[in-house]
Amino acid sequence: MTDHLILRPSGEFAGPVDEHTLVLGIETSCDETAAALVLGGYDVASSVVSTQVDIHAQYGGVVPEIASRAHLDMLNPIIARAIVEAGVPDSRIDAIACTIGPGLIGALLVGVSAAKSLALAWDVPFIGVHHHEAHLYAAFLEDPTLEFPLVVLLVSGGHTMLIEMQDHGRYKLLGRTIDDAAGEAFDKVARFLGLGYPGGPAIDREAVHGNPEAIHFPRAMMHEGLDVSFSGLKTSVMNHVRKHPDVSSEDVAASFQAAVVDVLVTKARRAAQQVGAKGLVLAGGVAANSLLREQFLDACVVDGIHGFLPSREMCTDNAAMIAAAGWHRLRSDGPTSLDCGAFPNLKIPGLT
Length: 352
Ligand code: KG4
Ligand code: ZN
Known about the structure:
Oligomer: single chain
Structural class: alpha/beta
Largest sheet: 5 strands, mixed
Number of helices: 11
Helix content: 40-55%
CATH class of the largest domain: Alpha Beta
Strand order of the largest sheet: 5-4-3-6-7
Mean pLDDT: 93
Order of helices and strands: EEEEEHHEHEHEEEHHHHEHEHH
Bound molecules: 5'-O-[(R)-(carboxyoxy)(hydroxy)phosphoryl]adenosine, zinc ion
Radius of gyration: 20 Å
CATH architecture of the largest domain: 2-Layer Sandwich
Low-confidence stretches: 1-12
Distance between the termini: 38 Å
Strand content: 15-25%
């Protein structure tokens, strides 16, 4: 047992949680198996990610049962590598944070079972982490100077949300998609164009050679509020291609991407202005998109707001963000009970 943290049989916990607290993060909610060690909530000692993209590519999307089995095969070696790369003994680990939801139930259970087993074996606290709360923390790992209130545009395969981080653990949902997530729209349009899986990076690459002004696709709800909608845009792309079978797929990709980015950047700026944000940050897999990154930063310069773009590795699923969010949760709430399960549709704690 470490002398730093004490897990009592009741789950009660006596800190401190401070800059010396070393958290092992584990992430298995979808198709990335990841482990990382983060010191003091901000300092990444190691971060290892094994992606299953190649395994699922042949099926055109993530196959849940295959994802669970791949996590089972990969998780122990990935955790071992994260510990070796951090250059610390197991006994130095003070707590284990793991994604408990949302995600694929079988995939989540692999990580949660491993995390709880290690917590028991090493006699350290277990911390259940919400996957999207962790995405909110990814930026802090690369820019600890970020200040509240902070607006985060979280754009992933399953979610598109504008969230105001008022403080650690206090979030307000400002806007969200009313239908498809941005990543889902990228994936569906890419599949329709025969560009393969995952669709986001494929469209990003294809768009480089296309003209973003070749086709004017609709920007739904552009002038109202902070919610977004991408389902009509996807249908509009399909109708256009069916009507013009010889259209260049590069132009379609570039024009579609321009429409998505236009909407996302407009709404993010509006949200930041509305709450008087001190910073604006991107998070989630779609935040790896080249045009979004470029236009987001340009907009922040024009608006005179502190904009921060996490690296692509930090935008996509990783376990460093899980460990970081876990450190903050351990500090505010203490450990999670070991009878905690996995939750495919978990809501972000502290979100109003
Ligand atoms: O956050 P993430 O890694 O997984 C979750 O959904 O939680 O996000 C994956 C999504 C996929 O829809 C993928 O197509 C999209 O992020 N994506 C991108 C890019 N890279 C990944 N979308 C647009 N452009 C990219 N470069
Ligand atoms: Zn994610």
